[in-house]
TrEMBL record:
The gene is dtd. It catalyses: glycyl-tRNA(Ala) + H2O = tRNA(Ala) + glycine + H(+); a D-aminoacyl-tRNA + H2O = a tRNA + a D-alpha-amino acid + H(+). Belongs to the DTD family. It comes from Candidatus Enterococcus willemsii. This is D-aminoacyl-tRNA deacylase. Homodimer.
Amino acid sequence: MRAVVQRVSEANVKIDGQIVGEISQGFMILLGIHAEDTLEDVAYLVKKITKLRVFEDEVGKMNQSILDVSGSILSISQFTLYAETKKGNRPSFIKAARPEQAIPLYDAFNQQLQAQVPVVTGQFGADMKVGLVNDGPVTIILDTRE
């Protein structure tokens, strides 16, 4: 699994011009699921994200987790995170999980996060418009294969 985690002061996702999810302080996460990912990858990534200390403490040092600041998460499925671009100019997505595998893992990821942090999502496979205000900016890339 590959996640782009952005610390945000606000974020939202629209489908057909309608906001279907929005948060204030927290993380906007783009989640790519690899064809070989399992529930072990989900558990690892959820633990890493919830313990990631990138929020400022009382002295301005990045020393607090999303749990410490009572933040929220906007979770967006993003198969294009597994784009292969070495050959030619048209990306290949062969390493991305097919929907029948990716949807249950995406749902499990969101459910495990939801047990600890408020989570809103987009819609898997939909044409989504994501808006955010990156706070910092802080952007971290996590990959369960690295």
